[in-house]
Amino acid sequence: MKSYKYLDAYHLDKMESYFRQMHQAGYALKNIGMMGKLTFEACKAEDVVYRFDLQKQAAMDLNKAYIQTYQDAGWALVPIDYQGVILFKKGAAGIDNPSELEIYNDDASRFEYEKLLLRRSLTPGIVSLIAPGMQIYISLINNERHGALWWGLWGVILLLELLWLLYYWKKLRDLKKSYLSRS
Fold first, then answer.
1. I need a labelling partner for 162 at 20 to 30 A (CA). Which of 84, 95, 156, 172 fits?
2. Domain residues of the chain, as ranges?
3. Quick check: 41 and 27 in contact, CB under 8 A?
4. Would you say which domain of life the source belongs to (predicted)?
């Protein structure tokens, strides 16, 4: 079954819930294709939990000890290869302890995972700041004369990018506070 939904790499927790709901409805995630397009296949309806892990290398380059560690804990690797995003699944039936359904079940590792997720969310914002910043810098250096519309457009784009960066900086600060208050 083709899905018209795409992987939202900035909200992986919501995607985990979506995959679980689909599996409960009888559709297992088969593939995450180009540009994050999701493909499901019909399966027996059961309660299966999906969890993401973020790695710097692609799934095919992971060492066997890494994968074996998760398999020993009852997790199965879902064969996808999407920008260093690794996906595991595990049956939830008969598991009473909710921490057994988490890959990161201690505060330190969960904090590192969420911090890495935030940094990955922040990267496009930093990269997209380069275009308006460079355009304004070049115009100022070359003493180019532009109308108010031109300056207003680039100014609004730059302001929106700065607000976006401020938003993610605040989220990272709040994340640190929440984990520091637990310890």
1. 84
2. 2-101, 107-182
3. yes
4. Bacteria
